[in-house]
């Protein structure tokens, strides 16, 4: 009764067994006792020397009369999807026979990474431990005992025969009303654990120089470092170059000041690298190399043990990222990635901490707006910045409250990307589009597909496509 509701089929199976044997069996009473091994129930109706044989026959009948009419418990599919979304595996440990458990799961459309059958109460513990189960969800006090025996957190739902008080008394770590509440609980639990891991990781690093762009990730990392290590063991460094929008500097300065953290503004010169100016798909390698090469000696000078960046777990899963590789090869650490924190979790934790950056739109460097193969220059970067600033001012004045906005430099043509729900409104206002042309472009057009992070990669040949923030 956690993932599977087989009550209708169980009653039908017992009725068939009763017909075959001539023994009266109360199937409705049996389903009110679900949880323990089948043999326990069979023993209520047959002599001890017949239990094994009758149980075997019951299972044969179950495959015919119960599996086809079994249904998923409400929200079971969503609960399983929540586990997978969190990066977890689905392990089913049950008193049901393993073949019938697999057949039942297949029938209701739930796929498990592993199924361990024939286990109840404390005997579930060995399978739970063997498969590295961190959280075990069940509806019976036996599931609670199994979770504790296997070293897993016990999450109980009173959808079976055991009321909430009994589940709590058995030692459940949490009792949810049903599986509908599980995805939110799991999200909070995973975030809590990852934040604990982040704190431990920062504690191990001892002191850090944070590569602080002012964006949501590096802002959260800076706040976490200040919390764990204390402001005196943390310094923020915001690299100043033509690639950084000027508007980001003041916001970054206010944020660091609010944390009581020392804030430095070292200059970087990525423009001195031909590979950066050439603007191939590996452009970010040269930018990040320049950043870490600038910050590493600064950290030594300040007596700080490590340079850390705001790379998160989503960044590492996004495909080939030359910037991440460049920073790693130079010894920069990635505490958010090490803790498994995703972008969404960074934003959720930032909001919980009251950080103003929790909902800040992505703001990658200005070079990410320039189409690959079009050479990067200070003039081009400045033109993009002028165009985006002018367009933001104009759209705000016109009552278009746009969150994500990019002006993509395709050469002489500017391609404007805004939130999809604002595309039509912007297309209908050529006077607003014209401010981009006035910023130095020969022509400007609105992308009908709307804002897409990394959309410049769409212009690359498919085999060479990379994923970079934009």
Q: CATH topology of the largest domain, anyone?
A: Rossmann fold
SS content category: alpha/beta
Percent helix among the residues? 40-55%
Mean pLDDT across all residues, rounded?
Answer: 94
- As laid out across the biggest beta sheet, the strand order is 10-9-8-11
Number of helices: 21
CATH architecture title of the largest domain: 3-Layer(aba) Sandwich
Main sheet specs: 4 strands, parallel
Cα Rg:
29 Å
Overall body shape: elongated
CATH class of the largest domain: Alpha Beta
Number of strands: 14
Distance between the termini: 47 Å
Low-confidence stretches: 462-470
What proportion strand? 5-15%
Please tell me the total number of domains.
Answer: 4
The CATH superfamily of the largest domain bears the name: HUPs
Could you characterize what this model shows?
Helix 5 (about 75-85) runs parallel beside helix 10 (about 180-205), helix 7 (about 125-130) packs across helix 8 and helix 19 (about 380-395) runs antiparallel to helix 21. It contains 21 helices and 14 strands. The strands form five sheets. The chain has a four-stranded parallel sheet with strand order 10-9-8-11, with helices on both faces. It has a three-stranded parallel sheet with strand order 5-6-7. Strands 12-13-14 form a three-stranded mixed sheet. The model is unreliable at about 460-470 (pLDDT under 50). The longest helix has 24 residues, at about 180-205. It has about 475 residues and is of the alpha/beta class. It folds into four domains: about 5-70, DNA polymerase, domain 1; about 70-185, 3-Layer(aba) Sandwich (Rossmann fold); about 190-350, Rossmann fold (3-Layer(aba) Sandwich), CATH 3.40.50.620; about 365-465, GMP Synthetase, Chain A, domain 3. The chain is about 45% helix and about 10% strand. A hairpin with a 3-residue loop joins strand 12 and strand 13.
């Amino acid at each position: 009764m956690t993932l599977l509701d087989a009550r209708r089929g169980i009653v039908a199976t017992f009725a068939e067994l009763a017909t075959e044997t001539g023994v009266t069996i109360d199937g409705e009473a049996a389903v009110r006792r679900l949880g323990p091994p089948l043999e326990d129930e069979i023993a209520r109706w047959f002599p001890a020397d017949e239990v094994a044989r009758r149980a075997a026959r019951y299972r044969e009948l179950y495959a015919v009369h119960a599996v086809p009419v079994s249904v998923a418990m409400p929200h079971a599919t969503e609960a399983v999807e929540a586990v997978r979304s969190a990066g977890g595996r689905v392990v089913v440990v049950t008193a049901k026979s393993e073949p019938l458990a697999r057949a039942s799961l297949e029938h209701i459309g739930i796929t498990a990474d592993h199924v361990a059958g024939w286990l109840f109460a404390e005997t579930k513990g060995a399978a739970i431990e063997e498969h590295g189960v961190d959280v075990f969800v069940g509806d019976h006090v036996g599931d609670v005992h199994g979770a504790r025996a296997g070293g897993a957190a016990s999450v109980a739902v009173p959808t079976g025969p055991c009321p909430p008080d009994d589940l709590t008394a058995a030692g459940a770590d949490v009792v949810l009303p049903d599986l509908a509440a599980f995805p939110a609980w799991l999200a909070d639990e995973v975030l809590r654990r990852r934040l604990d891991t982040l704190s431990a990781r920062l504690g191990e690093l001892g002191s850090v120089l944070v590569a602080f762009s002012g964006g949501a990730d590096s802002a959260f990392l800076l706040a976490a470092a200040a919390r764990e290590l204390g402001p005196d063991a943390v310094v923020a460094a915001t690299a100043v170059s033509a690639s950084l929008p000027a508007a980001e500097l003041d916001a970054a300065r206010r944020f660091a000041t609010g944390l009581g953290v020392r804030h430095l503004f070292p200059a970087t010169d990525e423009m001195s690298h031909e590979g950066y100016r050439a603007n191939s798909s590996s452009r970010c390698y040269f930018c990040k190399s320049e950043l870490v090469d600038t910050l590493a000696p600064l950290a030594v000078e300040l007596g700080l043990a490590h340079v850390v960046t705001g790379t998160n777990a989503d960044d590492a899963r996004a495909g080939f990222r030359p910037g991440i590789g460049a920073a790693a090869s130079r010894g920069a650490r990635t505490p958010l990635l090490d803790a498994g924190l995703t972008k969404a979790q960074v934003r959720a934790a930032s909001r919980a901490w009251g950080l103003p950056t929790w909902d800040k739109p992505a703001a990658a460097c200005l070079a990410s707006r320039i189409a690959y193969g079009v050479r990067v220059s200070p003039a081009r970067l400045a033109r993009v910045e002028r165009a985006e600033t002018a367009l933001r001012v104009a759209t705000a004045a016109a009552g278009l409250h746009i969150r994500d906005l990019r002006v993509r430099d395709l050469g002489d043509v500017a391609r404007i990307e805004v939130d999809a729900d604002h595309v039509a409104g912007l297309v209908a206002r050529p006077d607003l589009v014209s401010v981009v042309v006035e910023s130095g472009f020969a022509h400007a057009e609105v992308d009908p597909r709307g804002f897409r992070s990394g959309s410049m990669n769409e212009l690359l040949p498919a085999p060479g496509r990379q994923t970079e923030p934009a």
